[in-house]
Design brief:
The protein has 76 residues and is mostly helical. Helix content is 84%, strand content 0%. The chain has one domain (3-75). It is built from 5 helices and no strands. The longest helix has 21 residues, at 3-23.
Length: 76
């Protein structure tokens, strides 16, 4: 992975966590939070890994997120 690619991926992770923080107030966010709690009950470390590598569909399908990702990866 090139340095640019790595930087955009880090930005993507940061944006994603910001997004989920606001999304938690909605119903979808509530469902997602419950899933996260179930996962974190098992193992904290493995949960964090999963969280970063696979953003949930509810996030990647939202139009705002798609344009942001496109912007990030067109820059790099």
């Amino acid at each position: 992975m090139s340095q640019d690619n790595l930087r955009s991926w880090k930005l993507y992770i940061r944006f994603y966590s910001l997004y989920t923080r606001t999304k938690r107030k909605t119903l979808l966010g509530e469902k997602f939070k419950k899933k996260l709690q179930l996962k974190s009950n098992k193992k904290k470390g493995s949960n964090r890994k999963w969280f970063r590598i696979q953003p949930p569909l509810m996030w990647t399908r939202s139009p705002g997120a798609i344009t942001t990702i496109k912007k990030l990866f067109s820059q790099s």
